[in-house]
Amino acid sequence: MNAVAHPETRTDFHRPGVGAVLASTWRVGTAERQRAAVEAIRTTWESREWPDLGLLSYSVYTGTDGDTLLHYSQWTSERAYEDFVRTYRDDRNAEIDAAVPGIERVVLHRYAPPRSRVLDEPTARALPGAVAVVEVDFDEPDQERQKAWVDAVFTALDGDAPKRPARGGIGAHFHLSTDGTRVLNMAEWASERAHAEWQADAPLDEAWTRVHRYPGIAGSRVRRYTPALSLSAGA
């Protein structure tokens, strides 16, 4: 099967059959090189047979920082990803690197499929114009703490709904790393502005204070991305 590009289709965060999620970051240096790298990825993947080893989807997001690319892929299992690395990855990366030399592949993390929450019902079915990527690191592995922190965020969001609706918010998708040390939230928004306005109006109430000061948090960061490319198996 050949890969089919869906540049205007949102990632299906609850695609059936997903057993593992891989998220990685590349640094390319400039906005021009971001665009070139996305096109190189598209060309490389569309010119080859789909690696039918348990890869269900592969999406790329462009950082609003003019430097980074976020790669998000869904697999039937982590073993399926390891099979891909052994068999297909080097050939694809070599072609992409030939088109855009000097790509820095920064980090890759492994996650379980996400828990999600609708942010704003009127825009829940909209295509995202921006994705706010929230990463939270903990000081040691603890899967129960990961789950408890996400529960605390859901409680804060529920408290926000009547007084501070997330206008333009589509959905928040919380991924727990398989090593127990971090949480990744892929929060879809109608636009970068919608997220910036909601973030600027952040309350200092008890629920959000608990989220931000949760015991064991070693660091956190928020970056914004734009959906650039989505690939999946197709005829």
Provide structural commentary:
The protein is an alpha+beta fold. Helix content is 31%, strand content 36%. The chain is built from five helices and ten strands. Strands 1, 2, 3, 4, 5, 6, 7, 8, 9 and 10 form a ten-stranded antiparallel β-sheet that branches. Strand 3 and strand 4 form a beta hairpin. The longest helix is centred in the middle third of the chain and has 22 residues, at 78-99. The N and C termini lie close together (5 Å).
- Multimeric status of the protein: single chain
Count every helix, treating DSSP H or I runs of 4 or more residues as helices: 5
Strand content: 35-45%
Order of helices and strands: EEHEEHEEEHEEHHE
General form: globular
Which sheet architecture does the biggest sheet show? 10 strands, antiparallel
Structural class: alpha+beta
Helix content: 25-40%
| Rounded mean pLDDT score | 92
Rounded Rg = 18 Å
CA distance, first residue to last residue: 5 Å
Q: Provide the low-confidence segments as ranges.
A: none
How many beta-strand runs? 10
